[in-house]
Design a protein that fits this description.
With 367 residues, this protein is of the alpha/beta class. The protein contains twelve helices and 15 strands. 37% of the residues lie in helices and 17% in strands.
Length: 367
């Protein structure tokens, strides 16, 4: 169903009337992807099987885009086996570049005539992200198209957000004025790639004359719920947000993120504003991963998922969304998982967490 945004210049807002909440997942590379999966599993366990809208930035855009077609349990079976290092890494990207130069490179994503990849802006390509989306959906025999209730965003070099949703692309200028760049969004894979582009590290896509980068670089920060509240007119108390916060395990990357924002004239204060009071925020503390770590073991992955899963369960229980028999079952599951939290700081060798987690989650219909 379509409705108007609070800001009429942003066109209409397509929402799923059967859902009661909006889901937003923020930035954080593989850790954000896995924490988003944990949040989705927790919401599913609490009975939240549909959302009015789902979206996010960076890795949060990847997981919420896929969640429009795949149920959380199906999504877990697709995401957990993925080798992230083969998707985005210097080694994989150099191999991809060699194949392109030698004529062996396959076409990964049709970006359309208005989108170009500019490798001079960064070494790594985001093509692996597009392939990840296509391969994941191919397993479910689903065509890749723009979901009506999905949104994501990129950021211009001057820090202005560019919002992508079903009815087009919109640039919000620093003075609040909105320019409609297109009445159609770019291909889904291209929009998600834009939202994942780390400046200098990854090659930017140029769209409608603008170089666009990570959606977490706008003034709304790593999990931009403020955009939904201000521009879409969403009630903050209806937003469930998965927010990893600063990358405490990688001080360089946190400082680099701040430097990018400061150099572009974007406020480096990355916390949510006063208008976001009431947002149902799930903030998992994931210390064993950092934003540029891609060589993950299955234990690494499951630990991140479980930390987010438990954190979101606690938040939903506090809000009264998770209650009754569902709450008791989840308490039983957490007890069955045992003492796994101690691995958060020192997850350096296989300890059998993955097999145990899969067995426990499957017993409760979550894997």
């Amino acid at each position: 169903m379509s409705s108007s945004c609070r800001n009429p210049a942003l066109g209409r807002l397509c929402v799923n009337e059967r859902g009661k909440h909006f889901l937003t997942v923020g930035s954080g590379s593989p850790a954000a992807l896995l924490s988003g999966l944990g949040t989705l599993l927790a919401c599913w366990a609490a009975g939240l099987t549909e959302f009015r809208m789902m979206g996010g930035v960076s890795a949060g855009a990847v997981i919420t885009a896929l969640a429009h077609w795949l149920k959380p349990v199906e999504l877990a079976r697709v995401i957990m086996p993925i080798n992230f290092e083969d998707r985005i890494s210097f080694r994989a990207d150099l191999l991809r570049l060699w194949r392109k130069l030698s004529g062996q490179e396959e076409k990964v994503c049709d970006n359309g005539p208005d989108i170009e990849e500019w490798r001079i802006t960064g070494l790594l390509s985001t093509q692996g992200i597009a392939a990840c989306i296509e391969n994941s959906l191919r397993m479910s025999c689903t065509e890749v198209k723009w979901p009506k209730t999905f949104w994501t965003m990129g950021t211009t070099k001057s820090g202005e957000p560019v919002i992508f949703k079903e009815d087009g692309a919109f640039l919000i200028q620093s003075d609040g004025q909105v320019i409609r760049l297109s009445e159609q969004p770019p291909p889904l894979q291209a929009a998600v790639r834009i939202s994942c582009t780390i400046p200098i590290v990854m090659a930017a896509l140029r769209y409608k004359g603008h170089f666009l980068f990570d959606g977490a670089l706008s003034r709304d920060g790593l999990c931009p719920v403020g955009i939904q509240i201000r521009e879409f007119g969403v009630n903050p108390e209806e937003i469930i947000a998965c927010y990893l916060g600063d990358d405490s395990n990688d001080p360089f990357f946190g400082s680099f993120h701040t430097l990018c924002r400061a150099s572009w004239g974007v406020d480096t204060y990355r916390y949510w504003g006063a208008e976001t009071a009431g947002v149902i925020a799930s903030r998992p503390l994931i210390e064993h991963l950092h934003a540029l770590k891609f060589d993950l073991t299955q234990d690494d992955k499951w630990l991140a998922v479980l930390l987010s899963f438990e954190t979101c369960l606690q938040r939903l229980a506090f809000e009264g969304i998770l209650n009754g028999e569902r709450l008791e079952k989840m308490k039983e599951l957490i007890l069955a998982l045992g003492q796994w939290r101690s691995m958060n700081r020192h997850c350096t060798e296989p300890l059998g967490l993955a097999a145990h987690a899969e067995k426990c989650m499957a017993a409760y219909g979550l894997f």
